[in-house]
Amino acid sequence: MTFDRAIKIAPSILSADFANFGAEIRAIEDQGADWVHVDVMDGHFVPNLTFGPMAVKAFRPHVKTVMDVHLMIAPVDPYIAAYADAGADVLTAHVEAGPHIHRTLQAIRGAGMKAGVALNPGTPADAVAHLLDLADLVCVMTVNPGFGGQKFIDMTAKITALRAMIGDRPIHIEIDGGVDVTTAPLVAAAGADVLVAGSAVFKGGSVRNPETYGANIAAIRTAATR
Ligand code: DX5
Ligand code: ZN
Fold first, then answer.
1. Measured in whole angstroms, how far is the alpha carbon of residue 43 from the centre of its chain?
2. Beta-bridge partners for 41
3. What is the pLDDT of residue 1?
4. From the CB of 149, is ligand 1 less than 6 Å away?
5. Alpha-carbon 25 to chain mean position
6. What is the rounded distance in angstroms from the CA atom of residue 169 to the CA atom of residue 176?
7. Do you find a cis peptide bond into 75, omega within 30 degrees of 0?
8. pLDDT digits (tens, 9 = 90+) for 64-74
9. What's the CA gap between 20 and 165, in Å, rounded?
């Protein structure tokens, strides 16, 4: 993975057909996805449950780009080795998931992955001030995590603050939740480079109608880059 700040569209397979992940991943990549965003939920840190390391490992051979795994679980540390074995390129943990996020980020890098740190909407930018030398990505949640299709919460001030804190460091700013053609320009202007989008990418499409995924991805990219 080489670092750049170009806009990257990362469809969340939370909005894909859960009975057809392999074909769905191939379809979004064929249609222009830059990364594939994988939302892991545990029914404890968030009130929803998706899939675990065995499923993520099964997704791996279908992902040709970057497998971006977002852990909405607590605790995190006991599962880091399993997600490394599953083939995650980026592994993101929440600052709110436990008292030792610093150790968690060290462990993620130690296991050979890029380390991401995610912030819930109620958590200030300052929460990562002493973590930046351990992080490859900061994920700003623009919904309270747990479900796709929620209404965007404006975190522009937080993104702007993070962009200034990050300076020249090679750290991605990722936005997750409610990203569509209306909200993408706001977050991109504030300094985000990775835009996660679930419902806005998958709406209206299917593996039999993948061109709609392509049109949705292109529309978000155009909105973010104009
Ligand atoms: C929210 C997840 C998101 C979600 C985004 O808990 O982390 O990745 O799937 O979905 P949309 O784009 O539909 O808000
Ligand atoms: Zn996510």
1. 19
2. 72
3. 87
4. yes
5. 15
6. 21
7. yes
8. 999 999 999 99
9. 40
Residue pLDDT, tens place only, 30-62: 999 999 999 999 999 999 999 999 999 999 999
The mean pLDDT value of the chain amounts to 98
Q: Where do the DSSP E strands lie in the chain?
A: 8-11, 36-41, 67-72, 90-94, 114-119, 137-141, 172-176, 194-197
SS3 content of the chain, % helix, strand, coil (to 5): 40, 20, 40
pLDDT of 8 = 98
Q: Which residues pair with 140 in a beta bridge?
A: 119, 175
Q: How far is the CA of 203 from the centre of ligand 1 (A)?
A: 13
Torsion sign (Cα): 76, 14, 186, 173: positive
User: How remote is the CA of residue 91 from the centroid of ligand 2, in Å?
Assistant: 11
Q: What pLDDT is attached to residue 114?
A: 98
What's the angle, vertex CA 27, arms to CA 22 and CA 29, rounded to 5?
100
3-state secondary structure of 49: strand
Alpha-helical (H) ranges within the chain are 21-30, 53-59, 80-86, 101-110, 156-166, 184-190, 199-202, 211-225
Q: Kindly list the protein residues that place their beta carbon closer than 5 angstroms to ligand 2, a single-atom ion.
A: 39, 70, 176
Domains of the chain: 8-225 (3.20.20.70)
Burial class (CB in 10 A: 0-12, 13-18, 19+), 145: buried
> What are the tokens at 16?
């894909």
The structure's pTM equals: 0.98
pLDDT confidence of residue 117: 99
Query: Is the model's pLDDT at 226 over the cut of 90?
Result: no
Mean pLDDT of 180-194: 98
The set of catalytic residues is 39, 176
